[in-house]
Every structure is written in structure tokens, then in C-alpha cells.
Specification:
With 320 residues, the chain is mainly alpha-helical. The protein has one domain (49-319). The protein has helices at 3-21, 25-37, 46-65, 69-80, 85-109, 115-138, 141-161, 175-179, 202-219, 224-234, 239-263, 269-289, 295-319, and strands at residues 183-187, 194-198. The chain starts with a helix and ends with a helix.
């Protein structure tokens, strides 16, 4: 088994271990929900199988569209599957977490994910993700559905309008980033050029991560869609450093919020296991298809799927 395969295996084992170590409320919730799973006339394994197929396709599109699995998972599964939103959000956090755990070690080893940049951001975002998870579980489901639909449509607009800069110009590091020693050096593999990078507008960036953390915990989306624009366009980190650090961040922020959902009994292994396996296998296929796929077509397809799912979430929140 290759290194990537071992990373995925370790990630899956860690997540399954978290599920087994979680509160006994999970087992109780699963037992209580079992009769409802067959009330619609389907055998018990119908919805897990359909969930596996859906997440497998979702994993392919997530890689091709350059978005996190959680961003696609929560609006689509909550909109078209008969699962309560709390369970979908809990599973969505674990879906995003699995990808981060698998990618994190390799990104750190390649010197692309920056610990100097990640640690102060992670402290803020993970704390706020806990708060966001508590808020999301306390609010009525229809309010969360409406807010989720609005957020997803906002992500669509962000994907349509956001620009990316491979190497933003940072004239001078600000006082806070200098004090925290947020800077680094990496070698661009495509050119062999050694790049020294630094960041600015650090106070504003850290303030925005308060909002990002709350939204990640509240909706169970993961936050890669928001991390990268803030790190790259606002703070001035190189694009590759921003993407890699964002992926590493998810392993911290999503873990914090996921424990809240698990403690409240909002994580059901019957949903989590097929979702994680489907996303992982779909991601492997997506990586292979990425070489031949047309990026523009895939990007518009992902935006269209998200927009449809966002409208569906709004419809469920408003009309029930």
C-alpha cells in the first residue's frame, strides 16, 4: 500500500475510533431511529447504499471542482435525503475531517502547510467552531435550513467572483505577523524557484476567522471555501501555501465542532461509514479524471449543483 493509501487508512481508523469512543447516546439514537428507517417501506440498508453511491459521485466532483466534500455533502444530503439536519451536519464535519486527516501529513512534509500560519488561525477558528456547533444545535431546524441555503448561495457567488493570486504582493509584514513570526520559505516545484513569503493585514484576517469558525461549526460545511480567499487574497500568503494550510486547518477546526455533535448524539455510524468510504473512493477516481477533465465545465457544474442545493435548503426552511 502506498503512502497515500496508508494516510487514508489511518484517517478512517481514527474516525472509526472516535465513533466507538463517543457518548453512548450515539448507540441509543441509532436504536431509536432504526424503526423509522424502515417505515417508508425500504429495507434497512437501502438508504446507506444510496448514501454510498451519492457520496462516491460527490467525491469525484469535489476533486474536479476544487471544493471540499463537506460543502457538497450538507446541502445535497439534507435537501434530498430523509435525514434530520443535525445528523447531516455531524456527518458533514467528519467527511471534511477525513480528507484533512489524510492530506495533512503529506502537506506538512512537503513544507506547503505552514504551522506558523495555521496555529494562531486554528486557535481562533476551532474555538469559534465549538460555539457555532452549539448555536446550530440550539436553533430551530427551519432557521438553520434558511441560513444554510443563504450561505450556500453565497458560496456560489464567491466561486463565481473570487480571483486567486499565485503570489500576492506583500510590501511589508505587519507588526502582528512579525511578532508571531508568520513567514516561510518554499520551493516552487514547477519552476524550481525558492520563494520567501510573508503576510499582512493579520488582525483583520484573524477577525474574519472568528466568523468562518462559527459558520463551519453551525452548518457542518468545513471551511476550505472561506479559508483560502482570506489567507491568499487578504493576508497575502501564496496560493499553494493558502490551500495546503487551509486543508491542514480543517483537521483542527472540524474536530472541535465534530465532538459537540457526537456528544449530542448527532452522529450515526450507519450514515458516517458509507459517507466516508464513498467520499474517499470517489476522490481517488476524481484525482485520475482530473488529468483529462475540462476545468471550466466542471467548475460550472459544481456551481450549478450548489445553487440548486442552496435553493432546496431555502425551500425546506421556509415551507417545511
Amino acid at each position: 500500500m502506498g503512502k497515500n493509501g496508508r494516510f487514508w487508512a489511518v484517517a478512517l481508523l481514527l474516525l472509526l475510533g472516535m465513533l466507538l469512543a463517543a457518548s453512548p447516546v450515539i448507540a441509543q439514537t441509532q436504536a431509536e431511529s432504526a424503526p423509522a428507517a424502515t417505515a417508508d417501506g425500504h429495507v434497512w440498508w437501502f438508504w446507506p447504499l444510496l448514501l454510498f453511491i451519492t457520496t462516491f459521485i460527490m467525491g469525484i466532483f469535489a476533486v474536479l471542482g476544487g471544493v471540499g466534500g463537506g460543502v457538497l455533502f450538507v446541502p445535497i444530503i439534507s435537501g434530498f435525503f430523509p435525514f434530520h439536519l443535525d445528523f447531516v451536519r455531524g456527518t458533514g464535519l467528519l467527511v471534511a475531517l477525513s480528507g484533512a486527516l489524510a492530506a495533512g501529513p503529506g502537506l506538512l512534509k512537503a513544507n506547503l502547510a505552514s504551522l506558523r500560519l495555521a496555529i494562531p488561525v486554528a486557535l481562533i477558528a476551532s474555538t469559534c467552531a465549538i460555539v457555532g456547533a452549539m448555536i446550530g444545535l440550539a436553533l430551530p431546524t427551519n432557521i438553520v435550513q434558511i441560513a444554510l441555503g443563504g450561505t450556500i448561495l453565497g458560496i456560489c457567488i464567491l466561486m463565481l467572483t473570487a480571483k486567486k493570486s499565485e503570489l500576492p504582493e506583500v510590501p511589508q509584514a505587519d507588526a502582528l505577523s512579525s511578532a508571531l513570526r508568520i513567514y516561510g520559505v518554499y520551493q516552487e516545484a514547477s519552476t524550481g524557484k525558492v520563494i520567501n513569503w510573508k503576510v499582512h493585514r493579520t488582525p483583520l484576517g484573524l477577525c474574519l476567522f472568528v466568523i468562518i469558525g462559527v459558520m463551519a461549526g453551525m452548518f457542518g460545511l468545513g471551511a476550505g471555501w472561506a479559508n483560502v480567499p482570506v489567507l491568499n487574497l487578504l493576508m497575502g500568503a501564496p496560493l499553494k501555501i493558502s490551500v495546503a494550510t487551509s486543508k491542514f486547518l480543517l483537521s483542527i477546526t472540524d474536530t472541535s465542532a465534530a465532538w459537540i455533535y457526537m456528544n449530542k448524539g448527532c452522529v450515526i455510524p450507519l450514515m458516517v461509514v458509507p459517507s466516508l468510504v464513498g467520499i474517499m473512493l470517489g476522490s481517488f477516481v476524481g484525482v485520475r479524471l482530473l488529468k483529462v477533465a475540462k476545468p471550466t465545465f466542471i467548475r460550472w457544474m459544481v456551481i450549478g449543483i450548489l445553487a440548486f442545493a442552496g435553493l432546496k435548503a431555502l425551500q425546506k426552511g421556509i415551507f417545511g
